[in-house]
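Feature request disguised as a bug report, sorry. It would help if multi-protein outputs had a clear separator. Right now it looks like this:
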Amino acid sequence: MEERYNRNRIYVRPDEQKMIKNYRILLGGAGIGSIIAECALRFGFENITIVDGDVVEQSNLNRQNYLMSDIGKLKAETLKERLLAINPEANIMAINVFIDKNNAEELVKDMDIAVNALDFKSEIPFVFDEWCRKYNVPVIHPYNIGWGGLVFVVKPDGIQLTNFSRDPKNFELRLVEHITNYFKFWVQPKPWIEKLVMQFKNEKSVLSPPQLSVASWIAGGLVTNIMFWIATGQEVKRYPKFYLSSIIDDRN
């Protein structure tokens, strides 16, 4: 195992480390995707394509992988520079465009796995998943729910998120509500998530959902772990099952 990844030993076999090096990752969105990208790169995924047409804003700095000096710069290009500063030998591509109906197919068709970190402001996240399904590309959906990271894995031959809803309006909120109902009726209630949903719905202004750095880093770790399992041919839970990690229910 090369020196860069020597501390991965025992957890990751040398053949697995080689296996993931050129595994082709597509990051659709460089918001929470910026955290995922660095975690994945440090783990050993060295072939990452970042697609986002947005620029860095000050409101991103509480949870995304950017600096004050990055404000106003293109997210994808800025993230590429950061990743190459960590590993100059990595194959990092930045595509400074928003994903849409016209470019989604071309972007996903040669990938091994995709991260759908797109905002549900239109049907584009669904279009993205549809093209991934057609090209047999597994898709990972990460969500920042403040004190916890929530991740869904959608396999090409499995149930799709469109089975839950095809309406992008408040999609993330409705999905989180669905999760709270699952815990309420089948496992153990998650009052902290229920309270979060209620408070957000009661806000009088039309604001973006509140998010914390805590959840971004938790989700980054979860997604990197999931990509490793998939890349090395191991089983993972798939939608409608999910991964949720937080210490808020286990603080004592």
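(second protein starts here, but nothing in the output says so)
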Amino acid sequence: MRRVTRRQKIEPVISLINIVFLILIFFMVTGTLTQYDDQGIQFVRSSQLECCTEPNALVISRDGILSFEGKTVSSPIDYLKAIEGKETSARLMPDRDLPAKDLLQIVQQLRSAGAGRVVILTETVAT
């Protein structure tokens, strides 16, 4: 009588789970390596964001003082001139205590100066 040997099938699910965990760990580590540009600014908070914080943002303090790359900027138009050719959209990092009307005025100035897209960066909070 001949003995039938059955080979055990290798489960591909285990390999897939390992890859998913490695990717998860990678994104957790790389996500914690980013730092904010300016000290003392408190970001606007949001519960869900679709994108990540990128450099080359115009920082707006609660007093309405504009700064870009650590230097004071006199107007949003000067910021647009500084990022011309580097960026496709204007990125704003407003202080949480900045009045909304001041923020809207700056956005309007950027749009009228030719900014195609204005992105307001916020701080993500867990809900």
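Even a blank line would do. Unrelated, but nice: The chain has three helices and seven strands.
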